[in-house]
Automatic annotation (TrEMBL):
Domain Enoyl reductase (ER), residue spans: 14-361
The protein's name: Formaldehyde dehydrogenase MscR, NAD/mycothiol-dependent
NCBIfam families (alphabetical): mycoS_dep_FDH (TIGR03451)
Signal peptide residues on this chain, from the entry's feature table: none
InterPro entries: ADH-like_C, ADH-like_N, ADH_Zn_CS, ER, GroES-like_sf, MycoS_dep_FDH, NAD(P)-bd_dom_sf
EC number: 1.1.1.306
Protein's organism: Brevibacterium aurantiacum
Source species, domain of life: Bacteria
C-alpha cells in the first residue's frame, strides 16, 4: 500500500524548498523502498533548485544517503529487507558496451526506479539524480542500493556522492600512488575528498589550492602537506606556486575540483610533463575552453574527466566503509553539522557561503 511521508521538494526555480507530504508507491519489479537514515546537502541539490540541471519541476531533492531497505519488489535478489545500504546514482546495467568490455564504471545505461514518487494530488516528482532522499522514505532501483557494514549513516552516506567523487578522482581516475605529487584546485567537499584519497594512496607532496583560508585549513586536516591561497593570483602565478612546491617541475597529478576554464588551465600548466589532469568539478553549459593545441601535444600526459570518481559502488563503498572503521579514512571530518529535514534551505545558504564541508540531514 502506498505510504505518505515527509520530504523536501523544489517547486519552482530559485524558490525556497518546501517540507511537504510525498507519496511513496509500493515497489515494483526491480525496485526497493528505503527508510532514509541520513542525507548530505550537496551542491547538486542546490543546482536542481536553481534550474541548473533541468526544468522538470517539482523536484524531490536529496541523493547523498544511507538507510535501511524496508520493502523489496518482485525479482530483487541483491538486497533484502533490513539491509543497511548506501544509495548510488549510477546503477550499472551490465549489458551496455562499457559493461561488456569490463569497464562498468563508465556504464552508458544506468537505471532508476520505473515508478515516480508523487505529491498527494498525483503530481509526479522528479527525483534528484534518480534518488530523492530528502525524505523519510524513498523508492529506488535495487541496483542503486549498495550493502555495506553498518556504520554511522551521516558519515558513510556521504560516499553516495561528493566524498566518493573526490576520493575516486584521485585513486581511480588520477591513479595516484605512493610518492606521487598531487595538487588539488578547490577545497570544498569534493576537493577535500580528493586530498583525503591522495593521502590514503600514499602521495608524497599534496598541495591544496583555494581562495578561502578556512577551506585550506580543512584540506590540511585531511592530508594536504602544503596550502596555497590563490586569491588575487593570476593563472601564471598559480602555476608557479605549484611548480615551486614540486622541485620546479609541476605535480604528477592535478585535480580540478572547481570546473572553470581558468582552473582547468591552471591544472593543465601546473602538471609535470606527461602528468595527468583530472576534471571532477562540474562546469556550467556556457563555459568554453581555449588552449593552444601545440601545448596539448607538447606536454603529453593524460587529460581526463572523472564521472562519480569512476567508482564501482559494489567494489568501492564497502572497501571505504571498512577503511573508515579501521581509522584509515577520516570520513567523520566531512560532517560539519547534523540537521533536520526542515533545515535544508538554511544549509544551502551555509554551503553557498563556504561555512560547511557538509551539512547532513538525520532522520
Amino acid at each position: 500500500m502506498p505510504q505518505t511521508v515527509k520530504g523536501v521538494i523544489s517547486r519552482s526555480k530559485g524558490a525556497p524548498v518546501e517540507l511537504t507530504d510525498i507519496v511513496i508507491p509500493d515497489p515494483g519489479p526491480g525496485e526497493v523502498v528505503v527508510d532514509v537514515k541520513s542525507c548530505g546537502v550537496c551542491h547538486t541539490d542546490f543546482h536542481y533548485r536553481e534550474g541548473g540541471i533541468s526544468d522538470d519541476y517539482p523536484f524531490l531533492l536529496g541523493h547523498e544517503s544511507a538507510g535501511t531497505v524496508s520493502e523489496i519488489g518482485e525479482g530483487v535478489t541483491d538486497v533484502e529487507v533490513g539491509d543497511f545500504v548506501i544509495l548510488n546514482w549510477r546503477a550499472i546495467c551490465g549489458e551496455c558496451r562499457a559493461c561488456k568490455r569490463g569497464e562498468p564504471w563508465y556504464c552508458f545505461d544506468t537505471h532508476n526506479a520505473s515508478q515516480k514518487m508523487t505529491l498527494p494530488d498525483g503530481t509526479e516528482l522528479e527525483a534528484a539524480l534518480g534518488i530523492g532522499s530528502f525524505a523519510e522514505k524513498t523508492l529506488v532501483a535495487a541496483g542503486q542500493c549498495t550493502k555495506v557494514p553498518e556504520a554511522d549513516p551521516a558519515v558513510v552516506g556521504l560516499l553516495g556522492c561528493g566524498v566518493m567523487a573526490g576520493i575516486g578522482a584521485a585513486i581511480n581516475t588520477g591513479e595516484v600512488t605512493r610518492g606521487k605529487t598531487v595538487a588539488v584546485i578547490g577545497c570544498g567537499g569534493v576537493g577535500c575528498s580528493a586530498i583525503a584519497g591522495s593521502a590514503l594512496a600514499g602521495a608524497g607532496t599534496i598541495i591544496a589550492l583555494d581562495l578561502d583560508d578556512k577551506k585550506l585549513d580543512w584540506a590540511k586536516d585531511l592530508g594536504a602537506t602544503h596550502t596555497v591561497n590563490t586569491r588575487g593570483k593570476s593563472e601564471d602565478e598559480v602555476v608557479e606556486a605549484i611548480q615551486e612546491l614540486t622541485g620546479g617541475f609541476g605535480a604528477d597529478v592535478v585535480i580540478d575540483a572547481v570546473g572553470r576554464p581558468e582552473t582547468w588551465r591552471q591544472a593543465f600548466y601546473g602538471r609535470d610533463l606527461a602528468g595527468t589532469v583530472v576534471l571532477v568539478g562540474v562546469p556550467t553549459p556556457e563555459m568554453e575552453l581555449s588552449v593552444p593545441l601545440l601545448d596539448v601535444f607538447g606536454r603529453g600526459g593524460r587529460l581526463k574527466s572523472s564521472w562519480y570518481g569512476d567508482c564501482l559502488p559494489e567494489r568501492d563503498f564497502p572497501m571505504l566503509v571498512d577503511l573508515y572503521q579501521q581509522g584509515r579514512v577520516p570520513l567523520e571530518k566531512f560532517v560539519s553539522e547534523r540537521i533536520g529535514l526542515g533545515d535544508v534551505e538554511e544549509a544551502f545558504e551555509k554551503m553557498s557561503q563556504g561555512k560547511v564541508l557538509r551539512s547532513v540531514v538525520e532522520l
